[in-house]
């Protein structure tokens, strides 16, 4: 952040030197959005390469080492070295140094509240709070509401790993999660670690070629025109005959003529189509085409080609 590369920020301070007291358990809460690529761990070595080898990793009394979200916890005991370091497993120079200090006799009654102590130099006092049975609410929303359904919402204990799922409706495809953002925001079925009450939104986008609506099974697409889908997966277009949609969106549509020749296009390329038989691109002119003839411009031959009506078969 200061021109020297990535850095861990703790309580708003960049790579601070930490003072931890023996007999105290510390928990480091990770910001998912900022730390997703920086596995947090403790080490006995002052420097690491940051290439995933985790040199000198310290694990005694540690839970959640190498986490990139949620929390990492360390119980500082009698055997904890007097000097430790916190690092990232994927980048060097991200962390800093830890001084382990004996707390015996500093506070006469650690569980008292309020408490008194004697100041014998620079000192930091930390109040530790137990989570107990804290629960959080996870709310899931489908955007738009007609685009699909979501599952996994409810009330869970702090730190629970909740399985969430987004199921698109016919005619839509899943585009991604937003809000608290799970570890894999582009996966419809994924896990979310609940650290606070959260609202997650599942976004669905319209997939026009696979819509199943309209009178008598016919549907109008803004780019393809009228078509009708069969149970086999094939679609009959009033402009082009039989086509076969592939994938989750309009970005991969295969066409086949009655003679077996194959073509490809997408919602972003149409009315330009790629002909596998001609090994080149063609342009469909709806203005020049008639019920008797379909007109295509062949860029390979640099000439117009007349096809049979409602097909991809040349006359």
Strand order of the biggest β-sheet: 17-18-19-20-21-22-23-24-25-26
> What would the principal axes of the Cα set say about the shape?
elongated
Poorly predicted parts: none
The domain tally reads 3
Question: What is the N-to-C succession of helices and strands?
Answer: EEEEHEEEEEEEEEEEEEEEEEEEEEE
The number of helical elements comes to 1
Global structural class: mainly beta
Could you give a short account of the major beta sheet?
Answer: 10 strands, antiparallel
In what range is the share of β-strand residues? 35-45%
Can you tell me about this structure?
- The protein is an all-beta fold.
- The protein has three domains: 9-101, Immunoglobulin-like (Sandwich); 135-206; 210-307, no CATH class.
- The chain is built from one helix and 26 strands.
- A hairpin with an 8-residue loop joins strand 24 and strand 25.
- The N and C termini lie far apart (66 Å).
């Amino acid at each position: 952040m200061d021109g020297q590369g990535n850095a861990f920020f703790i309580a708003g301070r960049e790579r601070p030197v930490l003072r931890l007291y023996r007999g105290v358990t510390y928990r480091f809460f990770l910001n998912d959005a900022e730390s997703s690529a920086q596995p947090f761990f403790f080490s006995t070595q002052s420097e690491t390469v940051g290439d995933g080898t985790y040199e000198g990793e310290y694990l005694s009394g540690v839970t959640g080492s190498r986490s990139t979200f949620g929390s990492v916890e360390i119980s500082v005991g009698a055997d904890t070295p007097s000097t430790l370091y916190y690092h990232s497993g994927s980048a060097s120079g991200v962390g800093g140094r830890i001084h382990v200090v004996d707390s015996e006799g500093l506070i006469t009654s650690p569980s008292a509240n309020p408490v008194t102590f004697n100041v014998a130099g620079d000192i930091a006092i930390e109040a530790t709070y137990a989570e107990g049975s804290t629960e959080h609410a996870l709310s899931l929303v489908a955007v738009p509401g007609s685009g699909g359904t979501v599952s996994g919402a409810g009330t869970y204990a702090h730190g629970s790993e909740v399985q969430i799922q987004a199921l698109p409706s016919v005619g839509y495809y899943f585009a991604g999660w937003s809000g608290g953002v799970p570890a894999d925001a582009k996966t419809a079925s994924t896990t979310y670690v609940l650290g606070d009450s959260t609202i997650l939104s599942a976004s669905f986008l319209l997939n026009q070629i696979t819509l199943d609506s309209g009178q008598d099974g016919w549907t109008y697409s803004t780019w393809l025109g009228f078509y009708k889908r069969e149970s086999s997966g094939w679609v009959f277009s009033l402009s082009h005959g039989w086509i076969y949609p592939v994938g989750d969106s309009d970005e991969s549509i295969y066409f086949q003529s009655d003679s077996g020749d194959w073509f490809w296009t997408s919602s972003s390329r149409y009315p330009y189509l790629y002909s596998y038989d001609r090994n080149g691109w063609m342009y469909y002119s709806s203005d020049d085409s008639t019920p008797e003839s379909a007109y295509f411009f062949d860029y390979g031959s640099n000439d117009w080609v007349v096809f049979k009506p409602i097909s991809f078969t040349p006359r």
